[in-house]
Amino acid sequence: MTTQLTVSYEVARQRARQLLLSFPGEWQSILPSSEDESWRKVDLSSVPWDALSNLLASYQSPTVNYRLEGPHTVPPAEEKERLLDALATYSELEERLMQPEEARNEPAAFLRRNVFTLINLAFSNPVVLVAEQGDRLTIRHLPSDSLFLPCTVIRVPGGVEATVVEEFPEDTSALRSGNTIIVVEEGARLRYTQVRHDGESAHFHHVRFLVERDAYVEAGLLQSGGSVGKTFYQASMLGTGAEFHGKALYSGREGQVFHLEMGVQHLADHSVSSLLYKTVMTDHSHTVFLGNLEIPAGVRKVNSHQLNHNLILSKRARAESRPWLVIRAEDVACEHGATVGDLDEDALFFLQSRGLPEEEARRLMIQGFFEEVLGQMPLTDDEKEDFRLRSF
């Protein structure tokens, strides 16, 4: 690993526990602020902070909270400790929030931290794995009826081609706060997909990729359901020739709300990234997308673009799209775009004129809208169909 790790996991874990158990004490210093662009649109008023603090005071980390299917190894103690230090480094409390106009030159500052990552750091029982060449590795997290704190740390060794799917079921927990960190070493190739079905509890997830020299990552996110919450899906490009392609789908109905922040930090020359986020919104559901790109001074030959396409099927549904580009470098190519609209009436009429009932024609068009992303996921046909059935 080329990443510089400076924070001890055990020290950080104890510090996080002490801080969290001091409620209300120092909590104000770690609660998301409306002045922080990442959290400005997230309504946290329904998060039961008092009840949550009481739950944390008596909470015991689960001993088994996942099932594994597929090729992997459990790292030896020394390597596991090093990987857990990575988890701590990107979950610890930073001294000062960076301002939006600052292009940060350290991944620890880019991968934002908050009370939810601290809760996960303090009380989760991490699964630490080394991915192997071969068939798909599936990580199935098991639900909880109190706190759901899944935590995964994965290393993809240099030169390995790995496929990983991480699944999160719907549950009835008071809070779900997940944390996944994946280190993709030099020359490795990773296809990763996270599938989540969030219930009505508050849900917060952080997925971080550390992409080293000449490594290649295709990262997917399938999300349905949820009330209050936010997901961070972020990558730091640490080595020359690193490449990251992130794709996400969300379907919202009734009063569901989903906030997604996808971001890429380019710290190396000749690195490439793309982000694509698609949503289908109906009833009075609401989605907010923040596309984050940071390139500090001195980095050259970066190619990056992001797109957000929203299909709005109800007059009361809403979709917001906000690019957040902080570029301090020259000799880079960056672009972004977003669309919001209903189904194409001409295309719908054409399908109906060929004998398809309106409902079937609309379903076919929605399925086609999804397939650009869903079709590239390393999922079985049954898994893809399950997501379609949950979505429309």
From TrEMBL:
Name of a matching Pfam family: SUFBD_core
Chain segments annotated as coiled-coil in the UniProt record: none
GO BP terms in the entry: iron-sulfur cluster assembly
Domain SUF system FeS cluster assembly SufBD core: 147-369
Name of the featured protein: Iron-regulated ABC transporter permease protein SufD
